[in-house]
């Protein structure tokens, strides 16, 4: 028992790994305020190519070796970060806009009205709109993409 | 010393003595004229002047020191590397701006490209089968034109140049065929009316017939003899999709969606034999009867990795109103690197086809067939620096096993009994990138009665195909 307590105290002195939420962002003028994870997956698989307004969706992405893309693909698309998706009716894979950094993603989404992207919460500011995903905001504990 | 020298020395000595004696009283008078007080006063004044001088100099030095200290303090506030930090921030900001500008430019370019997309894929095959000569086959080049006129209007064309040669007869004959050519008017995501030359929505394989998409070179027997892939017809109808996942957000059905297509078309003709339906594909500008055929397909993406679909076809195949009905089911199941795909199709024909009141045409009463296929995607990291992996972000090998068969009833021709052909295929392909694939496969074929495709001949096929 004592050894257990000692171990707990010993472990307690180390900072715990804190996973930062990944926010799904769109242009502030986009009327969409929330999506389900399934809808987001369909966008990034090239199955849904238009917003409900009829405007074409411009999906942004990050390089394949970046940690945030690995997390995004693993959780949202259930796939390796290098996987490509081919929508029905075409022999060509679906293309996304690849941006180098979270800052570039935020700036791109803030400029292109039909764009969607994913960035760390720390990179979010008022130039973009954060979507409620699966009913939760990134600040809520139930938010799943971390 | 002689006399002369003595006299000169005497004169010099005398002169020196005279000079000394002449100035001596003056020097003595000067010392004597200053009192001790005056001398002290002089010294005090000299000391005061020296003090003042040094005081001034000290103050100047203090000021200089102070200014030096101030400078030093300022230097502490802006350390040596601060300018580097500022510069690097500027550089980062500049790089970011350049990236944004380039992405903006790319976006504009992409938007223009999205309006009109021109793509093609090409396939070259080599095959060596028992009882036949090995042959290279420059099988086809397919051109795609996808034009987005605006957010709701879209035109699409797929034109195949088969065997990529001239279309005249002879040894280099080829064929040009429109496999798709339609205009789509989107009402909303649920209803997108489409008209023109469309792919008949009867099974997944017909809709996804593109060479770069498939993992084996040869099509399954049933997908050529039972379903005449590529099966295109002139007609009209609509496509659409609906997403229901939001109603099942916290369940395994959170990705539930349905995609569908329904079309009216000219339909298959009476040229259906016990070799299959390939010759019965309808012309784009004529029909052998007034009845129009109907085809539809509904696919459900039940959950992540489970796609199941059902298709139907009904129409008349001759001018006397004899019917043909078709059913099809297809599926795609995938989990990680493993995929199971398959399809099965049936056609039933009403017997007694009478063509224009003349000869009674016999058609097979029943056609059916399908395939099941397992794919396993893999890669060896040890090959990353080899010629197979170098420079490619995600090269992949795929091992494939497929079994397929087709069975077509007799049409009362010279051969008797139903024709049946079975095929087991083992394959391996390599994709340096998703849309370029090098395939190789070995087929084991066996047939009953008339040969449908390969007869009893086993053989090897390899091909390269790429979409650009």
Tell me roughly what share of residues is in helical segments of chain A: 25-40%
Mind telling me which CATH architecture of chain A this is? 3-Layer(aba) Sandwich
Low-confidence stretches of chain A: 12-16
Shape of chain A: globular
Quaternary organisation of the protein chains: heterodimer
- CATH class assignment of chain A: Alpha Beta
Q: What is the CATH homologous superfamily assignment of the largest domain in chain B?
A: Porin
Secondary structure tally, helices of chain A = 4
Total beta-strand segments of chain A: 7
Uncertain regions spanning at least 5 consecutive residues of chain B = 20-33
- H-E order of chain B: HHHEEEEEHHEEEEEEEEEEE
Task: Tell me what the structure shows.
The complex is a heterodimer of chains A (146) and B (468). With 146 residues, chain A is of the alpha/beta class. Chain A has one domain: Periplasmic binding protein-like II (D-Maltodextrin-Binding Protein, domain 2, 3-Layer(aba) Sandwich), CATH 3.40.190. Helix content of chain A is 27%, strand content 16%. Chain A has helices at residues 2-12, 37-44, 67-77, 102-111, and strands at residues 22-26, 34-35, 58-61, 97-98, 115-120, 129-130, 132-133. In chain A, the strands form two sheets. In chain A, strands 4-3-5-1-6 form a five-stranded mixed β-sheet. In chain A, strands 2-7 form a two-stranded parallel sheet. In chain A, strand 3, helix 3 (67-77) and strand 4 form a beta-alpha-beta unit. In chain B, strand 9 and strand 10 (323-335) form a beta hairpin. Chain B is built from five helices and 16 strands. Chain B has helices spanning 3-33, 36-77, 82-115, 204-207, 222-225, and strands spanning 116-129, 135-148, 153-162, 175-185, 192-199, 232-243, 257-265, 293-303, 306-316, 323-335, 338-349, 366-378, 396-408, 419-433, 436-448, 459-467. Chain B is elongated, with a radius of gyration of 50 Å. Chain B starts with a helix and ends with a strand. A 16-stranded antiparallel barrel of chain B has the order 1-2-3-4-5-6-7-8-9-10-11-12-13-14-15-16. The model of chain B is unreliable at 20-33 (pLDDT under 50). With 468 residues, chain B is an alpha+beta fold. Chain B folds into two domains: 14-77; 98-467, Porin, CATH 2.40.160.10.
């Amino acid at each position: 028992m004592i050894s257990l307590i000692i171990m707990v105290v010993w472990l307690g002195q180390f900072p715990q790994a804190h996973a930062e939420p990944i926010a799904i962002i769109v242009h502030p003028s986009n009327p969409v305020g929330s999506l389900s994870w399934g809808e987001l997956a369909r966008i990034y698989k090239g199955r849904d190519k238009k917003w409900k307004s009829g405007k074409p969706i411009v999906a942004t992405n990050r390089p394949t070796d970046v940690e945030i893309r690995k997390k995004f693909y693993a959780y949202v698309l259930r796939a390796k970060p290098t996987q490509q998706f081919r929508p029905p009716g075409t022999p060509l894979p679906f293309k996304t806009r690849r941006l180098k950094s979270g800052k570039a993603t935020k700036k791109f989404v803030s400029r292109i009205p039909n764009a969607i992207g994913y960035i760390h919460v720390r990179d979010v500011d008022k130039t973009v709109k954060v979507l409620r995903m699966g009913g939760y905001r990134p600040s809520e504990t139930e938010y799943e993409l971390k | 010393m002689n006399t002369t020298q003595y006299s000169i020395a005497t004169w010099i000595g005398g002169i020196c003595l005279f000079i000394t004696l002449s100035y001596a009283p003056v020097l003595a008078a000067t010392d004597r004229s200053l009192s001790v007080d005056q001398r002290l006063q002089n010294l005090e004044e000299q000391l005061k002047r020296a003090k003042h001088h040094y005081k001034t100099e000290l103050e100047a030095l203090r000021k200089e020191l102070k200014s030096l200290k101030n400078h030093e303090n300022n230097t502490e506030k802006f350390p040596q590397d601060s300018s580097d930090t500022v510069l690097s921030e500027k550089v980062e900001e500049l790089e970011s701006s350049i990236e944004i500008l380039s992405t903006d430019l790319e976006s504009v370019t992409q938007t223009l490209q999205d309006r009109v997309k021109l793509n093609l894929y090409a396939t070259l095959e080599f095959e060596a089968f028992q009882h036949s000569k090995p042959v290279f086959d420059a099988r086809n080049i397919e051109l795609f034109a996808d034009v987005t006129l605006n957010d709701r209007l879209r035109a699409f064309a797929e034109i195949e140049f088969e065997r990529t040669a001239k279309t005249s007869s002879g040894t280099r004959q080829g064929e040009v065929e429109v496999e798709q050519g339609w205009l789509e008017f989107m009402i909303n995501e649920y209803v997108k009316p489409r008209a023109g030359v469309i792919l008949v929505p009867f099974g997944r394989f017909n809709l996804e017939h593109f060479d770069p998409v498939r993992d084996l070179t040869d099509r399954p027997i049933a997908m050529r003899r039972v379903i005449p892939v590529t099966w295109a017809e002139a007609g009209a109808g609509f496509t659409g999709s609906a997403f229901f996942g939001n109603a099942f957000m916290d369940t395994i059905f959170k990705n539930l969606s349905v995609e569908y297509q329904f079309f009216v078309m000219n339909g298959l003709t009476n040229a259906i034999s016990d070799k299959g339906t390939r010759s019965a594909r309808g012309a784009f500008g004529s029909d052998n009867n007034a009845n129009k055929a109907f085809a539809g397909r509904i696919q459900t993406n039940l959950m992540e990795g489970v796609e199941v679909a059902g298709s139907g076809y009904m129409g008349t195949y001759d001018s006397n109103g004899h019917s043909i009905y078709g059913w099809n089911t297809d599926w795609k199941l995938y989990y990680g690197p493993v995929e199971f795909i398959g399809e099965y199709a049936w056609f039933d024909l009403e017997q007694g086809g009478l063509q224009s009141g003349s000869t009674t045409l016999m058609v097979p009463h029943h056609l059916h067939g399908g395939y099941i296929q397992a794919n396993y995607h893999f890669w060896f990291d040890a090959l990353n620096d080899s010629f197979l992996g170098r420079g490619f972000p995600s090269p992949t090998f795929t091992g494939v096993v497929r079994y397929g068969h087709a069975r077509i009833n007799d049409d009362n021709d010279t051969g008797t009994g139903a024709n049946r052909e079975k095929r087991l295929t083992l394959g391996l392909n390599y994709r340096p990138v998703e849309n370029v694939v090098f395939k190789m496969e070995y087929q084991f074929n066996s047939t009953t009665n008339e040969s449908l495709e390969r007869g009893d001949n086993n053989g090897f096929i390899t091909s390269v195909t790429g979409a650009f």
